[in-house]
Design goal:
Elements lengths: L7 H27 L9 H12 L3 E2 H8 L3 H13 L3 E6 L2 E9 L1 H23 L3 H22 L19 E2 L5 E2 L8
Antiparallel strand pairs: 1-3, 2-3, 4-5
Helix pairs in contact: 2-4, 3-4
Length: 189
């Protein structure tokens, strides 16, 4: 086992945990989509952005991208789609006219509240159907799940290379005449 490889039990737990989370999220989204009454169904990323803007009015596109862990241009595309559907509104930032502040429209707020209500009912029905011991286990797991979410939001640290670590030989580049040349900063150490 290497220093970065978790113990066998942890690997099995991590695999099952991540598979279950993805599966649960997909099933919840699918069930909620089936019961939607709106003509235009929204995709998962659109719903996530709407929820974020609804909960954090006057959010900038770059802040939304950071929070959702998406590229800025992906969030810009989502914003354009949601503005075209009348679900988001863009305002110029008075502090920086080049930036836009995002706001959910009243229709978006209604849809988000409807989505949250239906999600609460769906999950509430499933959890209520569990035996009391399983419900207690779920409640007891919530602090650990919050820690997992917080850890995933934190970008991984860049590994520090110890000074005595073996160095990779410098790459060999060729000059226009074909002679080898060492890239800047990769010469003798």
């Amino acid at each position: 086992m290497t220093a970065t490889e978790p113990a066998t039990l942890d690997v099995a737990l991590a695999d099952e945990f991540s598979t279950l989370l993805v599966g649960i999220q997909r099933l919840v989204r699918r069930r909620l989509r089936q019961s939607t009454t709106h003509e235009a169904r929204l995709r998962g990323a659109q719903i996530e952005l709407l929820r974020l803007v609804h909960d954090t009015p006057a959010l900038r596109v770059c802040e939304a991208a950071d929070e959702l862990c998406l590229a800025g241009n992906s969030v810009s595309t989502l914003v354009n789609q949601l503005v075209a559907q009348g679900l988001l509104r863009r305002e110029s930032d008075p502090a920086d006219r080049r930036a836009a502040l995002l706001h959910a429209t009243p229709e978006a707020a209604e849809r988000i509240e409807d989505w949250r209500r239906r999600r609460r009912v769906l999950i509430g029905d499933v959890v209520t159907g569990l035996p009391p011991a399983e419900r207690e286990a779920l409640a007891a797991a919530l602090p650990a799940l919050r820690q997992v979410a917080d850890a995933l939001r934190t970008p991984p640290a860049v590994p520090r290379i110890p000074p005595d670590a073996p160095r990779t030989p410098p790459a060999v580049l060729r000059t226009p005449s074909g002679a080898p040349r060492t890239p800047p900063g990769q010469g003798e150490r």
